[in-house]
């Protein structure tokens, strides 16, 4: 059985949603599997009939009618999930969503703690999206405060007690002040029970013909020492995909690495070759309270190929290059040395090129 994996080749914002949608719409898929990250992802898809949505929780194959599976490496956020679900319902889309029982769950307190800590850092901010991903991981290291999808499905009686502890003593420990929002406490609890009703349990073994949709990019992987500490709390390359495929009995992975024709970075941290004179229009990545504005740099194509090769480790891999209508470049034999052709995304059409195996 074969799997396809869509992976950001840089710092994120490459066009992973576009490529996921393309694969689902043109080649079909049984499931889109979210294999890292959480609601901080922002994957934009525009359909030929003009519908536009930025996917956060749900897979970018949703417009193509492909269900979403939130793997055990995905971090769920019930409140943000329903914001997204309402937007999709307004577009006439009724998504089908499954999740693994071990998925961690973000609380509203995690988001507020995250934002408080970023505010305290001032100009030295980490560059977080402010939706509590890192805080969820840190808190979940304490077994008595860990909340998973299994807890929601089982409607454990201790969940409300855990939330109270997180909002009071834990929040005070992390930030110096408790999170006192009783109305949000009640809202979150109701959201959890509703989330457990809307999202069904499933194992990766039941996901047939999957497309694995990654979040962020290779340069933000939590183990990337070059760009530490401004990283994300997940494995952004094929590591999680390989583990899930072994469990699912999948023995072939085709990786689709996605890149713009130029380099971008949203948030703090170094950007090699940063060029403040470079400016490109972007309807999704507008200025953010915690990440600031998008930054740009010319692409180092040799470095791009090197990190794709290092991540794939013998798997079949392809390169999909997006935003060529904004910034033309020569993508072909003279650049990569792997043969002619190029991946082009323009007006919704996509062509892919295999650049190595």
Keywords:
357 residues, single chain, 2 domains, disordered C terminus, 20% strand
Description:
By secondary structure, the protein is an alpha/beta fold. It has helices at 16-27, 78-90, 108-121, 133-140, 149-154, 159-175, 182-198, 239-248, 301-312, 333-336; strands at 2-8, 31-34, 43-46, 52-55, 68-70, 75-76, 97-99, 104-105, 200-201, 210-213, 252-260, 262-266, 294-298, 316-322, 344-346, 349-351, 353-356. The strands form 5 sheets. A 9-stranded mixed beta sheet has the order 9-7-5-2-10-1-11-14-17, with helices on both faces. Strands 3-4 form a two-stranded antiparallel ribbon. Helix 2 (78-90) crosses helix 7, helix 3 packs across helix 4 and helix 3 (108-121) packs parallel to helix 6 (159-175). The two termini are 18 Å apart.
Short structural summary:
The chain has 357 residues and is of the alpha/beta class. The protein has 10 helices and 17 strands. The chain has 2 domains: 2-100 and 209-356, Adenylosuccinate Synthetase, subunit A, domain 1 (Adenylosuccinate Synthetase, Chain A, domain 1); 104-201, Adenylosuccinate Synthetase, subunit A, domain 2 (Orthogonal Bundle).
């Amino acid at each position: 059985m074969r799997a396809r994996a869509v992976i950001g080749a840089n710092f994120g914002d490459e066009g992973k949603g576009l490529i996921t949608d393309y694969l689902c719409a043109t080649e079909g898929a049984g499931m889109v599997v979210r294999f890292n990250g959480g609601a901080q992802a922002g994957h934009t898809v525009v359909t030929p009939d003009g519908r536009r949505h930025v996917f956060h929780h749900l897979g970018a194959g949703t417009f193509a009618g492909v269900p979403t599976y939130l793997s055990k490496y995905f971090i769920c956020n019930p409140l943000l999930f329903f914001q997204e679900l309402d937007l999709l319902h307004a577009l006439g889309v009724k998504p089908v969503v499954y999740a693994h029982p071990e998925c961690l769950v973000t609380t509203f307190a995690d988001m507020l703690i995250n934002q408080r800590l970023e505010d305290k850092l001032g100009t030295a901010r980490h560059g977080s999206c402010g939706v509590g991903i890192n805080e969820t991981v840190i808190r979940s290291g304490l077994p008595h405060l860990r909340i998973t999808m299994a807890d929601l499905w089982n409607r454990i009686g201790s969940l409300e007690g855990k939330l109270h502890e997180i909002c009071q003593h834990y929040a005070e420990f992390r930030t110096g002040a408790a999170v006192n929002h009783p109305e949000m406490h009640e809202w979150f609890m109701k959201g959890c029970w509703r989330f457990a009703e809307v999202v069904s349990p499933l194992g990766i073994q039941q996901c047939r013909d999957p497309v694995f949709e990654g979040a962020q990019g290779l340069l933000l992987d939590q183990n990337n020492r070059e760009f530490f500490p401004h990283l994300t709390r997940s494995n952004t390359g094929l590591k999680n995909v390989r583990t899930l495929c072994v469990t699912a009995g999948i023995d072939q992975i085709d990786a689709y690495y996605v890149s713009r024709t130029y380099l971008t970075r949203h948030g703090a941290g170094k950007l090699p070759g940063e060029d403040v004179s470079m400016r490109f229009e972007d309807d999704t990545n507008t200025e953010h309270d915690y990440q600031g504005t998008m930054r740009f740099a010319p692409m180092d194509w040799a470095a791009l190929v090197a990190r794709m090769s290092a991540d794939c480790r013998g798997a079949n891999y392809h390169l999909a290059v997006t935003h060529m209508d904004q910034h033309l470049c020569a993508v072909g034999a003279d650049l990569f040395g792997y043969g002619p052709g190029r991946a082009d995304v323009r007006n919704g059409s996509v062509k892919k090129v295999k650049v190595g195996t």
